[in-house]
């Protein structure tokens, strides 16, 4: 057997599904399930507390910006304090804050707990992605991150409908305690992982003041920003838009979206590992672009479900590829910061998208999705510019 064939065989034999990888996927699933169950029920809870639609927007939005602000701190702590410390701390904060929802009697207290929940979410998700990156063989990082993301996608498929179903059967107090219990299961699982040890010499490297991002992760992070801007318009306004258009089946939209998101993750990462982002990102972004145009049109239910299919496929293709791209060139002592940079831009896109589209809604809901298509178009232009620049540098 020649050296090339032997190298290829060794790559094929590198395992993704190790003990620790299975555990981190399960831990990710349970904390995401607890989170996704609260996503559609928090607005109902605010209504029950006597809050207005405007207050619902603030309570929902503050979570995203809280997570965004604390991700850089999580990135630094991952390299100085260790993966396990940050992950378990984040999960603990998540469990306590969500469990605290059960005892809320005022919107002010809920608002404070949402800020705390955002901190826990920022720490735990940044750490979870970094831990998965540590465990996955570098040669199969795109594929492995696709599988890791799949654990969150399954929770996305189950969580919202399960949360809404339980909200109609049990009290909000019982619901939030169940969500906290799911986070506790994640904590117990996470305590069983063998974490990468902190390299003391690397941890003591002096960082630039106001070091809040990893520069090698900026390009894919900027791209994911333009992608996730579209999610704010879908999660917040699509149900209202469907009612206005007289289109039924909105509850199937998120299920189909999640199913095709999961499907695309089973093959997109492998293509990225073998061919690179050039073979993954443009087609994935193009599918999202078409989905936004279909939503801007939205004449009937079949078009709604077709848009869900294309959006799920497109997002599932580009997200793991961009995440793998964001960490692959980062130094070994900056992988955590690279993940923090990626998810900060991810959160920023959702938060800015929701705020922007709230203002655009006065021009009609269709304008939200036309603008979303414009965001994807700008994203493709930016990507083309980055590829052209990279080729010029090689020449």
Automatic annotation (TrEMBL):
It is a multi-pass membrane protein. It is found in: Cell membrane. SUPFAM superfamilies: MFS general substrate transporter (SSF103473). This is MFS transporter. The lineage of its organism: Bacteria, Bacillati, Bacillota, Bacilli, Bacillales. The keyword Nucleotidyltransferase does not apply. Keywords: Membrane, Transmembrane, Transmembrane helix, Transport. The chain crosses the membrane at residues 21-42, 54-73, 85-113, 119-138, 145-169, 175-193, 223-243, 249-267, 279-297, 303-322, 342-362, 368-388.
């Amino acid at each position: 057997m020649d050296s090339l064939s032997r190298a290829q065989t060794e790559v094929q034999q590198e395992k993704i599904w190790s003990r620790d990888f299975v555990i981190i996927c399960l831990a990710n699933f349970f904390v995401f399930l607890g989170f996704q169950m609260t996503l559609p029920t928090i607005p109902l809870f605010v209504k029950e507390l006597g809050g207005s639609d405007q207050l619902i927007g603030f309570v929902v939005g503050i979570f995203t910006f809280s997570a965004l602000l604390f991700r850089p701190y999580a990135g630094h702590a991952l390299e100085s304090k260790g993966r396990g410390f940050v992950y378990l701390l984040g999960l603990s904060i998540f469990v306590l804050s969500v469990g605290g929802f059960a005892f809320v009697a005022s919107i002010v207290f809920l608002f404070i707990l949402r800020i705390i929940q955002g901190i826990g979410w920022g720490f735990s998700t940044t750490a979870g992605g970094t831990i998965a990156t540590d465990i996955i063989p570098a040669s199969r990082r795109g594929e492995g991150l696709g599988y890791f993301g799949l654990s969150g996608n399954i929770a996305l498929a189950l969580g919202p409908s399960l949360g809404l179903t339980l909200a109609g059967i049990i009290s909000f107090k019982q619901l939030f305690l169940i969500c906290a219990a799911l986070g506790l299961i994640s904590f117990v699982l996470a305590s069983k992982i063998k974490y990468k040890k902190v390299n003391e010499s690397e941890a003591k490297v002096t960082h630039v003041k106001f070091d809040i991002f990893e520069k090698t992760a900026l390009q894919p992070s900027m791209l994911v920003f333009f992608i996730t801007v579209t999610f704010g318009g879908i999660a917040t306004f699509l149900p209202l838009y469907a009612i206005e258009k007289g289109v039924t089946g909105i509850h199937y939209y998120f299920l189909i979206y999640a199913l095709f998101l999961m499907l695309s993750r089973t093959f997109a990462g492998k293509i990225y590992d073998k061919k690179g982002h050039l073979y993954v990102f443009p087609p994935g972004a193009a599918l999202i672009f078409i989905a936004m145009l279909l939503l801007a049109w939205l004449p009937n239910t079949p078009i709604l479900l077709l848009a869900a299919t294309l959006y799920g496929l497109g997002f599932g293709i580009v997200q793991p590829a961009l995440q793998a791209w964001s960490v692959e060139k980062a130094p070994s002592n900056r992988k955590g910061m690279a993940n923090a940079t990626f998810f900060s831009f991810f959160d920023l896109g959702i938060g800015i998208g929701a705020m922007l589209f709230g203002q655009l809604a006065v021009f009609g809901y269709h304008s939200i999705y036309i603008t979303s298509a414009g965001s994807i178009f700008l994203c493709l232009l930016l990507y083309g510019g980055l590829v052209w620049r990279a080729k010029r540098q090689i020449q």
